[in-house]
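Anyone opening a protein record will find just a pair of labelled lines. The record below illustrates this layout.
***
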Amino acid sequence: MPSARPRLLYVTDLAYPARGRRYGDEDVRLTSRLRADFDLALCHPLDAASLMAGFDAVVVRNSGPVLGYQDAYDAFRERALRDGARVYNPLTGRADMAGKQYLLDLWTQGYPVIPTVDRAEDLHRLPAAGRYVVKPKLGADSLGLRTVAADDLPALADGTVLVQPCVDFAYEVSFYFVDHDFQYALYAPDPGRRWELRPYEPTPADLEFAHRFIEWNTLAHGIQRVDACRAPGGGLLLVELEDLNPYLSLDVLDDGARDAFVAATTRSLRRFLTG
C-alpha cells in the first residue's frame, strides 16, 4: 500500500524539442502543483526502468515519442508488467499507446474517424481526394508523416502505414479527460497553426462524440486527449486518441480551469494508488 504521502516517479523529457510546445515548462509547472500531495521525483524516460522500484507509481507525462528510444521503452513496459508496477496511464491503453492501428479498426467498425486503410487492395474504399496522408502505424508527433498524390499510394500501402485522404477541415479541436471525466476543450482556429490554441466551448454533441472514444478505450484511470477535426459536412472526425503522454496545453487555460485540472488529476492519482 502507498504511504500517507505517495511517492511518484514522474517521467518526462524536459529537453525534448516539441514543435510549438514547451514540454519542460508544462511539466515543471504541473509537478510544482502535485508536490502539495505527493513526494515526487522527475526522471528521463531512459531512466524510468531502473528507478521505478523505489516509488508507489510511475507517472508517464511529456516523455516524447517512444520511437526515439523504442528498446528502452519496451524494456520499461516489460519490467513494469512483470513486477506489477503501477503506471499512470495504465499500460493497457488501446489507442496511440499501442500504435495507430486503432484508427483503421475504428473506421472499419463505423466510428466517426477519418477514412483509413493500410493496404493497396483497399485504396478504392477511400473517398477521392487531391492529396493523401501516409503515416507509419508506429509513428508519433508527425514523425514519418507524408502527404502524397493518389498515384503514389499503391507502392506505399504495404500494411505498415495508414493511408487517409487529406480532409479540408475547418479547424482542429481537442477534448481533455481525466479518467472518464471531461475537463476542458481547446481548438486551433487556423488549420495551419495546430498549436496556437484557444478555449473551446463544446456542444452536447461534441462531448458525446469525444466520450465515445474514451469509453471505447476502457482505461479506468489516466489522462487522455481526443483530437478531432471539423469536417466539411459539419461533423467531427477523430484524428487521434492520445492515451500515452498527451501534451495538455495548460498554459492556455485560465487559473480556474488549471486549478480544476490539477485537482482532478490529484483525485485520480489517489484513486489509482488505492484501487
In short: The mean pLDDT is 93. The helical segments are 23-34, 48-51, 70-83, 101-108, 153-156, 204-217, 255-274. The longest strand covers residues 158-165. The longest helix spans residues 255-274.
